[in-house]
Amino acid sequence: MNEGLRVVSNYSPLVHHSSSSSMSHGRHLCLPFLNFHPTPLFHTTCSFLLRHSVTMGTHDKQSNTRTKSASMQPMTGEVVAESQDISTSGDSIRRRFLEFYALRGHRVLPSSSLVPDDPTVLLTIAGMLQFKPIFLGQVPRQVPCAATSQKCIRTNDIENVGRTSRHQTFFEMLGNFSFGDYFKKEAIRWAWELSTLEFGLPSERLWISVFEDDDEAFSIWHDEIGVPVDRIKRMGEEDNFWTSGVTGPCGPCSEIYYDFHPEKGYSDTDLNDDTRFIEFYNLVFMQYNKNDDGSLEPLKQKNIDTGLGLERMARILQKVPNNYETDLIFPIIEKASQMANVCYALADEPTKTKLKIIGDHLRAVVYLISDGVIPSNIGRGYIVRRLIRRVVRTGKLLGIKGDGAGNKDGTMLPVLAERVIELSPQIDIDVRARSPRILEELNREEIRFKLTLDRGEKLLKDMLDNALASAQETGTVPYLSGKDAFILYDTYGFPVEITTEDAAERGVSIDMKAFDTEMENQRRQSQAAHSTVKLTVENGGDLTEKIPDTEFLGYDFLSAKAVVEGLLINGSPVLQVSEGSDVDILLNRTPFYAESGGQIGDQGFLYVTDAEKHLRAVIEIKDVQKSLGNIFVHKGTIREGIIEVGKEVEAAVDKNMRQRSKVHHTATHLLQAALKNVIGQETSQAGSLVAFDRLRFDFNFNRPLLENEIMEIENLINRWIGDATLLQTKVMPILDAKRAGAIAMFGEKYGDQVRVVEVPGVSMELCGGTHVSNTSEIRGFKIISEQGIASGIRRIEAVAGEAFIEYVSARDNYMKQLCSTLKVKAEEVTTRVDALLEELRMTKNEVSEVRRKAAVDKASVIASKAFAVGTSKKIRVLVECMDDVDADSLKSAAEYIVDTLQDPAAVILGSCPGEGKVSLVAAFTPGVVDLGLQAGKFIGPVAKLCGGGGGGRPNFAQAG
What we know:
The structure is a single chain. The chain is of the alpha+beta class. Helix content is about 35%, strand content about 25%. It is built from 27 helices and 37 strands. The strands form 9 sheets. Strands 3, 4, 5, 6, 7, 8, 9, 10 and 11 form a 9-stranded mixed sheet that branches. The protein has a 6-stranded antiparallel beta barrel with strand order 15-18-22-21-20-24. The chain has a 6-stranded mixed sheet with strand order 32-33-34-35-37-36, with helices on both faces. Helix 11 runs antiparallel to helix 12 (about 380-400), helix 12 crosses helix 15 (about 435-475) and helix 20 (about 655-680) crosses helix 21 (about 705-720). The termini are far apart. Residues about 1-85 and about 525-540 have low confidence and may be disordered. Its cofactor is Zn(2+). Its main location: plastid. One of its GO terms (biological process) is alanyl-tRNA aminoacylation. Its EC number is 6.1.1.7.
């Protein structure tokens, strides 16, 4: 209990907005900012307990787990009196939910990243995602039950955002989860208590849905909770039976709905009627496993997975007509209204819809970029880019110009994002610290998209010009095809609303039916991808019941005795493996580091000896990976003898390879610290590799590093190495680590307790990797490359330690060879090379001049081959091949000939300067150009026949 309250205590009782004054709809919503009048109501945790008449459970002191009876009761423990706010603000709702379940024995866990550690899902779409391995039985539970407030992103209904009262791309899912601890009775009872007692919802306004065959849930709701039969609806499998996929964990659902219009009575009620009901709490009773044949078998461990939509509960408690007008989103909408110079309360529905889109999408974009997702054209990056472009397009339609404050060349996204960041501390404490990078990325992406919009406007103008010209020729009504309008929308991000407005102004109609067809096809494709969380009970499930987590000894030891717990060949378990075979080995304990956090796995050997210490088997370990949670898989080859399950082995890590990885890992921390010192604190890691021969570090930055910056980074790191600083490593609660300033690595998952590696005065990071004891062990550091790998992402590769010595030695040998070849000292190499390059340049110029003169001489001979074409006006034409003349010489020859021929004249020359290469030149005199012929347009199609391309001016063009 103390641990649970310790985590919850992070939710400090801040002053919140009262619903009566801040969200009374329509009275003061036109003000530039919401004029909230906080009326905080504080009370102690003890009074919280008294209000709910809670009876404390008991603990089994031996096992530190709750007794059976305690599953219905809060955990016992010392309760510290604490002021508590019971207002209806979004922050208060979130805190009260987590405290409610903490007092009932749930461990409050942090939200996981929006980038899931799950290849089946593009983004985190549900609160249960971080617990998927536990539900699958792949990893043992760390706690019997948990509660979270999870950031989520769903884009499969993006077209409904702003148009309905409840669809959002970004939302928070409050959830309570049981991993075999409690089940239906407790889940239902607590959901009801939370809704009616904690949040004070009138019980007569709450409706319940249950799966049609779930008599147990129906009985609990009616007989024990007291919900009238008329307000409990049995619903079919499509609505109230949750499945993870074709096979895997599944079970019936029960949902709680709020009734906005109880005066309509009980007859002909439809819980899917959005105008009357909103589902705000979903309880999934995960009690079955679906087999391949569709049959259901009871799970050994029954689980609870729930989700309560924070924005939906805020809408109910704050008495506003939709999720967008809650205090979680509306401040963003009001800022957008101010920038667009409109009053939200007086605006028409289309305008309100646009403002809602901005409010919703900006939240999603800010949190995605904070979690490391950068706009791009693929995967998660495409989702960010699409949302950003929707906001920019929508802002343009609303009339927002520039930054909304008079600077028409400014950008709107950073201004709006500032408001999102202001609202972020209780959702994600890291967003504010990452705000410089978020704002910079938004500014850059908006500028880039505005250029795209400009191109779209030019394309639309051309399309409309062509439509009008075609209609004039055929005598028909001018129109633009739906496909063209969709290409403008989808490919160039050009709003269809602007397309229709511009077309209407010029009298051009649009085939909107065809446009809608194209849009529907895209929507179906979007919905088909990554819209559900896939759970599958795999063959490894049985293995995890037998194989415990591997005990890692590698921080302190490089060799240790261990027992072989399992052997796998091609994923299938075996009892023994003989010489020459590749095998995956599972040990009960190991000094080998398994690949994680960017650091590759250790290498080394396993030795098997008999009672007399005679060597019986040698297994070379080439790699170590983590699988099924925290089980280390040693990938190796049997070099001698036979290895068997149950045998004891001596596990020995290759000390040299380990030292190399330790050096590179600590150097990576120093590199990140140096980057922040030299180019700015806002830069952050976007990926890394810690290998034996080098390190690789990806970071957020929008330009190449300058040479002097690279030198400054190297000098700074080498100075820290020379300081011979002792590293400090400690384990602490993750919230304490973040408060202390420890940096978390993007994409890594952390538990409640984290390992912090600190180079005092230089760097402090959350890291599970292996590190040197003293910076002097790194010996030296050198950056070997710096390059861009994606929009806004740079990559540095570097060497340190032994790899640094090898790199410097190799470069020194190259220099010695160069000095020997050039017959100069090392310090004279640059001067000598510059002189050689100048000599080469002059020689090339001389050769080019000789070739040019030769080509002109040849041209003077073939000029006489020109022939006349045309009847009324004779044109002198010359078409000739000049063998292997290079492109520059061919150009000189064409210019010479066209100058010698009488106007009008056209010269087309070709050559083959190398194997598989063709050069073409077209030169037209002014008289030919005046006839409407252009060299650039002429040469292009000819070049295509040769498998090439080219173009140029009306009078001169080249191709190849």
